[in-house]
UniProtKB/TrEMBL annotation:
SUPFAM superfamilies: YceI-like. It holds the Pfam family YceI. Residues 26-178 form the Lipid/polyisoprenoid-binding YceI-like domain. This is Polyisoprenoid-binding protein.
């Protein structure tokens, strides 16, 4: 009986250890992140972001991004534009306080990765893909992505009524392993 029990226990320990090593990495979003935007009518940055990041280059099936940007944190460098952007004429920060992205899948691409998921902005949810790169340096790393959002897809129009204005976003997020 002992001859069977010891190898079984050893096998159980090895299997448990193997699963421990392939668990995806949880990351803490560090200060110093930036969410910059450039559009037809304004450019600037969102200055408040929070979220959960689970990512390991070797285990993309377990990757998960759940990130919120505080709409009221918009900063165009112009107080009047900031108030206008937060108002019901644009983002309506009081009614829709967050821009929220939740990934459902992360895939490897020729230039990095794509986080595919749902973008919720201005009360409208749409399928959305965020291309990004990731550079790891020990227990730290940096996510970087550049992409465009058509604000008209989310019901955000200008006083002139034009809806198809693409806004270019550049997102840089430094992280530390938890």
């Amino acid at each position: 009986m002992k001859k069977i029990l010891y190898p079984a226990v050893a096998l159980l320990v090895l299997v448990t250890a193997a699963f421990t090593f392939i668990t995806a990495q949880n990351w803490k979003i560090n200060n110093g992140y930036s969410v910059k935007f450039e559009g037809k009518y304004a450019d600037g940055a969102f200055e408040s972001m929070k979220g959960m990041v689970v990512f390991d280059e070797k285990d993309l099936a377990a990757a998960k991004f759940d990130v919120q940007i505080d709409v009221a944190s918009i900063n165009t460098g112009n107080g009047l534009k900031n108030r206008h952007a937060r108002s019901e004429k644009w983002f309506d920060a009081e009614k829709y306080p967050y821009i929220h992205f939740v990934s459902s899948e992360v895939v490897k691409t020729a230039t990095g990765y794509d986080a595919k998921g749902t973008l919720d902005m201005h009360g409208i949810k749409k399928p959305f893909t965020i291309p990004f790169t990731f550079v790891r340096n020990g227990d730290k790393g940096v996510f970087h992505g550049e992409f465009k959002v058509n604000r008209g897809d989310f019901g955000i129009t200008t006083p002139r009524g034009d809806e198809s204005d693409y806004t270019h976003l550049t997102v840089t997020v430094p992280v530390t392993a938890k």
